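pasting for ref
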Amino acid sequence: MLYFIAAWAVLGIVSWVIGTALLQLLNATCFERLGDRWLAVLWLGLVVLAVTLLGTSLLLPLSPLVGGLVTTGLIAGSLFVPGTRREVFTSYTHLSPRLIWGVAVLALAIALFMTRQVTWIDTGIYHYGIIRWLAEYGTVPGLALLKKQFGFASAWFALAAPFNPVGLGGRVSALTNGFALLLAVLHFLFSLTQSFTAQAKLSDWFATLFFGMVLLPLLGTHLLSVILVSPSPDIPLIFLTGVVAWSILITTAQPSASVATGPNHIFEPELIPLVLAAGAVTMKLTALPLLFVAGLFYLFTKRFSFKRSLVGGVVLLGLLLPMLLFSIVTSGCPLYPSAFLCLDLPWSQTSQEATQMAEVTRGWGTWFGSSPAGVPTALWLFWQWFNAIGSSKLIVLLIVLSLLSMIYVVRTPLPRQNRGQLWILGLAVVGISFMMLQSPLLRFGIGYVVLLPVLSLAILFHVKLQDRFTQLAERLAASQWGKSYQWKSLGLLFVSTLLIVALSQPPARSRLVLPPPLPRVKVLQQQVNNLVYFSPQNSKGACWAAALPCSPEPAEDIWLRNSSRGMQAGFIRQPLTQ
């Protein structure tokens, strides 16, 4: 627990400084309230740090030393951005002891929950494997030849690599998801307290309801809870879906505050959703709907211009380039496992291999086989999915609620309508469609399917019931209990205590410094061509924390690219006859 809390403090400080510099560059005066700015800078800084580390892995292994140098360089560069030092100092002066203690107690509660043993099978199959390759060797050419999943690019794994040195044996692989959970709970608590004030905005209610709705299943259901306590990039994508929508609501709520300071100011606040969405895509390609809608939002929320499209294109390329290069280096395909634009390199996956890998994660293509003769394929597949997967009933229910909510959102009176509502509606439609066509699982699409129910409730509360909520909060604050205990701070401590009692699992003493190690696996040393590797002896092919290189079945034509340099030089394909 202590390791997690210390690492989160480092991540928080680094993200804060980087994000503050970004808000200064983007002239984001629309984030006028201090709490909104703090949340925005933390999410933005975290995304940029992860992408930067992924780019660094193309040149160097992501050891703790390299990670420290990268973060130091980012902090130094950020502090040279005009206005950053002043805002960082101003923010520091607003950190009261009560707030610091509240966040510390919350961090302790989340650390108790997140330091359980990681058991999510995908971590054993490839999550921790990629993290370890990044930490020890950086981006390795042809790594997908060793195991196809090792070609999956994720900035989230790059962020975890410097915190996972070899000696810890994967004990802290869930550290980054713990930090994302901490930010999500902080976002929920801040928005909750703002929602019951006279200054409440639609974005406050939206964030309160969104994070409240996604945190409940993440913390309360077994499967999602197991995924949460892992390095899975599904978790930050769920949260970033809400953060992108929240940032759209804020940047469109006050158009006059979002105007650039002059005609020569090339960066604008509308870039914030695009930066967040692009960062999410570098973590996992299931965030493509976020990028599509955020890109259209940036291009068309103001009058379209060539200059703005050029700036957006440059920013987008800078954020996506590390992911594209990682995929090319490891698999030969820039959008692996998609076969789109695969290159002919000595280590490339064939288009057929890439397509087969993509089909593994798709529901309709491979999970249920072919429909019986005379039965409509679409209807048969839907029925198989509906009956075979437990979460399918909840997905269908949320989609039905989304359709009903869409009617309410569209019928909202125009004088009160925030333009951002229509963009969120579009994001929900694109996201749900993408999820149902590609991989209809709750962990891939929960962020998309709750958007419209959350938005409709937020509009209802903000437009119809805001006065009642405000009066209730004022009466509570005016009471003797409210005056004596300052209910906002007490609420933070209450939620933290509740998390400690309800979510922690004994014995906590054994996890005081570090969590338990990853599950152990027996391995058998084998050889293919000139490569000696370790094969896990289990049905899932999970290596967990076994020594590198570990794989259940490397490609038959895999060879070390340079025998004298070993695995650092990577792998190539070479027919046995050569």
